[in-house]
User: What shape does this take?
Amino acid sequence: MKRSWRSILTSTACVAAVVAMAGSAAAEPAKWDFSDEYGGNNAGLTYDAAQFCIGEVEKLAGDAIDITYQGGGVLGYKSADHFDAVQDGGVQAAVTLLTQLSGIDPLFNLSSLPFVANSPEQAYQLWQIARPEYEKVFEENNMKLLWALPNAPSGIHARTPITSVDAINGLRIRTYDVNGTQTLIAAGAAPLQIAWSDLVPQLSTGGIDAVLTSADGGKQLSIWDYVTDFTEVNYAMALFVAHVNKDAFDSLPAEAQAALTDTIAACDLHNWQLMLDIMTAPYEEMRANGMTITPGDEVPAPVFELLREAAAKVRNDWVEKTGERGKKILEEFEKTRNN
Assistant: This one.
């Protein structure tokens, strides 16, 4: 019998009982900053995920660690900067859109391979299968990988519904990684890879006509000020990951180290539920602000055929670049998905 996403998560989220504080607390807690390009104005998926994680860690660690969330890019780091910044100790911890690190290792493009994971359950299975390979890359670069947060499925925010092949042709659309850029080029669009913090200027000046992101992402941007339509294409569920500097981690008291690792499964469970809660929740506000929502089952088959055909080359190129690592991950994922 195929297990539900909730049963899978729950079975892996049996976190160890609260670690009892032993001995007297340190005179001063270790002070950490937690960097996030997203989460501006204390809102959004990454903000909610980070706050939950920080709260759980500090409940277990007591006064041993004091973590300050720094959202909206206030520390000056974009997701693409986080790998070097955390590796070098410029910041102790960060939540990072994994696909922004494809220049470090093409493996990091896995979660945004178009039309691979088609449900929250499958996105979780893919994360669990790939996690050991992700961990190796972070460990080799003086970091520890903690939990993941899936973005809600990406759709297309535009000035017209994406209900024909012609609507894609020449579309000046923002993408968030190389996978999206290559897929949409192959589909005939004119994509630009643009960082989240640079999106509003591009929209307001007409530099782009459309945005590839989730409904929640559109809500955070008040995207109804710039476009009129959201089309569900369930393109991909790209992952954010939390990672920390290994030297900073090793210098923590034992109870703080245990707190950071013992909460990983609980954070994954919480984060997948977060994603489920916001998949369609923004629709009401989007409609109230004049937007039209086109559900996936109303998108004509030729549109999906075009996008899937364009995505096939991207997937094949990814396997070629990642070699046996990528091939084994996808093979294991296919076995799990078919059970």
